[in-house]
Amino acid sequence: MKIAGGEGEAARPLLEEKPDVYFDGCPGCAMDRRKAENPGIPYGLFFHTWIINLVTCLPVSSLFPFLYFMIRDLGIAKKVEDIGFYAGFVGASYMLGRALTSIFWGILADRIGRKPIIVITTLSSLVFNTLFGLSMHYWMAISTRFLLGFLNGSLGTIRAYAVEVCRPEHHAIGLSLVNTSWAIALIIGPAIGGYFAQPTEKFPNLFSNDSLFGRFPYFLPCLFISIICFVVLISCIWLPETLHTHKVHNKEDQHPESLITYLSDSKEFDKQCSTSTKNKGLLTNWPLMSSIILFCIACFDDMAYSEIFSLWAESDKKYGGLSFSSEDVGNVLVVTGASILLYQTFIYPHIAQVFGLINSSRVATILSMVLLFTYPPMANLSRPWLSIVVNVASVFKSCSVATVVTCSFILQNNSVPQDQRATANGIATTLMSLFKAFAPAGAGIVFSWAQKHQHASIFPGDQMVFFLLDVVVLFELIWTFKPFLDIPKQTSSS
């Protein structure tokens, strides 16, 4: 049986199970027949997938502009220099919760379907994001963020879903669009968090200190996001399932009344069915695991950088920071998010086509290392040059991370068959979440230490922070080479 490919063999997944028969009542077969009959790009399904992933990312990105001030107002930090320490654990709690359950959600999605997991995640985002905005104590902020991550099972599921709603030649587009939802979250989330947090200070004519939003100064941005979650939750009613619910091991198991279309000879049919049902050990699949490790390092870099950037930008200049307000940080993240969207949609596909997935990632990591060395001297600039330089550096840094992350997405999904895809993405999400749980906690601790050692003779605090980030990116670059990264044969490494 021939499998539809994209631009040569490089665009074809390692194992693409295109069913030889379509069974009545099987949602996976219905989706595969839809793909066979409509070879074009499924823009409608891509948009639905994209917006679902968006609402699960918004709670992660929206708190960056106001987390520094929220920790200050909760009164847990006795000194200004300790704010970064406690802020790091708020970010870490979400990732820790997600790390504990991502494999479970992936396995469950491979058994009961993609749609139920997506619905559960969207509902939990609505509930616990709202409760986070109502936090009056540090323990409540930590626990609601933890539960938000604990019940978030859609990240790995969405990646599996994105390649199952389209033909193989469109997989790169589907995964890239999933990644752009994070870029949009970096636009909308920080904008919501930066503009709507502390509304009594920013809009005193609309909100009084005695109002609900005066008592809970960080509730308004969370409420706004929860309303978006509610709308998306309702839209999930029309979300089609993609998981195959029938089990076929040979031609004799077929029932004539179920057979809609027979596409190949019996030898090829038996070969494909045996391949798709074989229980392979995912943890021993080195092409999969090596791409997951690359993904984890890139996500650690991204999360640690995001945590440090906001804290560093909002800290006072006497501590090596930029003295930015929450609105200033929100503006930078909005510009960065918009740039990532444009980059992922219009620029990255051409770069990957010309240079290949791996070489593009290597160039991106080298650029990232160079950029990080330029951050500490920015504190010596004055406006408007300061804002211009910070925005440009932030855009290039985030686009570099997006390049490596998209590369790892494609490698992961090309390394496994469909009946293991959600579980594989669940493993990736678990390991990535562990890395991301440690990243903000570690970054917060390092940042707090740096503020207390700003006047050290060798590597002052702010320089040490960005030097350590550079070390992480160096490991990221090393991992793109053999023998660390094992590339599936059907994926171009040039």
From TrEMBL:
<keyword id="KW-0812">Transmembrane</keyword>
<feature type="transmembrane region" description="Helical">
    <location>
        <begin position="431"/>
        <end position="451"/>
    </location>
</feature>
<feature type="transmembrane region" description="Helical">
    <location>
        <begin position="332"/>
        <end position="351"/>
    </location>
</feature>
<dbReference type="InterPro" id="IPR036259">
    <property type="entry name" value="MFS_trans_sf"/>
</dbReference>
<feature type="transmembrane region" description="Helical">
    <location>
        <begin position="363"/>
        <end position="379"/>
    </location>
</feature>
<feature type="domain" description="Major facilitator superfamily (MFS) profile">
    <location>
        <begin position="45"/>
        <end position="488"/>
    </location>
</feature>
<dbReference type="InterPro" id="IPR020846">
    <property type="entry name" value="MFS_dom"/>
</dbReference>
<feature type="transmembrane region" description="Helical">
    <location>
        <begin position="385"/>
        <end position="411"/>
    </location>
</feature>
<dbReference type="InterPro" id="IPR011701">
    <property type="entry name" value="MFS"/>
</dbReference>
<dbReference type="Pfam" id="PF07690">
    <property type="entry name" value="MFS_1"/>
</dbReference>
<protein>
    <recommendedName>
        <fullName>Major facilitator superfamily (MFS) profile domain-containing protein</fullName>
    </recommendedName>
</protein>
<feature type="transmembrane region" description="Helical">
    <location>
        <begin position="175"/>
        <end position="198"/>
    </location>
</feature>
<feature type="transmembrane region" description="Helical">
    <location>
        <begin position="117"/>
        <end position="140"/>
    </location>
</feature>
<feature type="transmembrane region" description="Helical">
    <location>
        <begin position="43"/>
        <end position="71"/>
    </location>
</feature>
<keyword id="KW-0472">Membrane</keyword>
<feature type="transmembrane region" description="Helical">
    <location>
        <begin position="218"/>
        <end position="239"/>
    </location>
</feature>
<feature type="transmembrane region" description="Helical">
    <location>
        <begin position="288"/>
        <end position="312"/>
    </location>
</feature>
<keyword id="KW-0813">Transport</keyword>
<feature type="transmembrane region" description="Helical">
    <location>
        <begin position="463"/>
        <end position="481"/>
    </location>
</feature>
<dbReference type="GO" id="GO:0016020">
    <property type="term" value="C:membrane"/>
</dbReference>
<feature type="transmembrane region" description="Helical">
    <location>
        <begin position="83"/>
        <end position="105"/>
    </location>
</feature>
<keyword id="KW-1133">Transmembrane helix</keyword>
<feature type="transmembrane region" description="Helical">
    <location>
        <begin position="146"/>
        <end position="163"/>
    </location>
</feature>
